[in-house]
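**Sequence, structure tokens**
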Amino acid sequence: MAHTIVKTRYGFVGVAASAKGIRRVLLPRAEEEAVRRELNGAEDNSPQARAWVQSAAEKLQRYFRGESVEFNEPLDWDGAPAFYCRVWNELLKVGRGETVSYAELARRVGASRRAARAVGQAMAHNPIPVIVPCHRVLRSDGSLGGFGGGLRLKRKMLELEGVES
């Protein structure tokens, strides 16, 4: 995969793409080397993959500066369960400054409210956070719930988007 690392005020962010689209985003980490180790893998040096990585990386830097950005690069979810892909596609419709509950997201993909836990698993396995905005998913009571980057970062990301948490 083509990949790069960018420095933001929250730490080092990694982004990787295959010939099909963005495959991975690593949330901010304090150590650049930690991001580099996670991104290490087979290289796809196709011009298209490099272009998508560069475009997404620039937008991620702008996002973490608090700017409104539109991610329009194709996404590569090859190998992900069909349910997760349905949930992630629906989540892409939740705009900047908006939130949705796990239960509501389950309902939107045609599952019962009891599928909220399965939606939570889809969020936990989201390989492309920020672009697929799992930080916008909250518990039904409005509390933050979980987040792979930690609740402090989730709160900061929501604040960047104008959501009070």
Notes: The chain has two domains: 2-64, 82-160. Residues 4 and 107 are 36 Å apart (CA to CA). The chain has a mean pLDDT of 94. The beta strands are 2-8, 11-17, 22-29, 100-101, 137-138.
